Amino acid sequence: MHATQRESIILDLLAEHGFVSFRDIEAKLDGSPATIRRDLERLDEEGKIIRVRGGAKSVSSSDGQAKADLKLFGTPFHENVVLNTQQKKAIGQAAAQLCNAGEGIMIDGGSTTLQMCPFLEGLNLQVLTNSLHIVQALGGQPGTRVLIPGGAVFPEQNIVLPLFGEDLTPAFHAPKLFMGAAALSARGLMQDDVVLVASERRFMERAEEVIVLADASKFESSSGNVVCPLNEIDVLVTDARLGDKDASTIEAAGIRLIIADA
């Protein structure tokens, strides 16, 4: 692949996403890591991109904020939220029962974690979340205090994510983190977009216990960016459609398995 073709692909990725990781560039281009680094250095010197740790960002970004049309890879929230709704509500209710009154928790954005919200009322929780849907759902609950990290708003998922290697998450430590998944397999928990992966890793570093909410359909795919191996997950809440083989994989990893009745 000629240098001009590689550079065109890099610029197209940045135009669409605002930030792209070196790993994602490698996956898209036919070139060695050394060649790609030279391409990025040249584009940076020409003022067409901005080199940052782990990748590059668009020159249209300002003060760490991405342009308004940043997009995440993966299924948009409005499409995902109408899938497997009965199972997701049951999973959300079962997950909420793991919370203790008055404690601080973290809830990562997602269509399944959103289903926890109605069952948290009255527990007087302090909740750190990156999801504006969850902020709205918890906002009317007396006694529930909601915190959000800094960053850019990604409209497809309506979540707030820090960009370009920044860490804009409050200095918050919690006994429990509730998070979703695009896919689960023996490889681990996966998400579609590397920006989301980085944000979830920051959440995980601040939690004592990682609790994953995923309906059984998430075991039908094994593609994506790995957030963590299975042995970093403490609890999985899923539904009764989970197959015996997948259940054995989960239990072999030392994960506590909770089956929610839909």
UniProtKB/TrEMBL annotation:
HTH deoR-type domain ranges (all copies): 3-58
Source taxon at top rank: Bacteria
Single GO term (MF): DNA-binding transcription factor activity
Record keywords: DNA-binding, Transcription, Transcription regulation
Keyword check for NADP: no
PANTHER family: HTH-TYPE TRANSCRIPTIONAL REGULATOR SRLR-RELATED, HTH-TYPE TRANSCRIPTIONAL REGULATOR ULAR
Designated name of the protein: HTH deoR-type domain-containing protein
Organism of provenance: Hyphomonas atlantica
Lineage: Bacteria, Pseudomonadati, Pseudomonadota, Alphaproteobacteria, Hyphomonadales
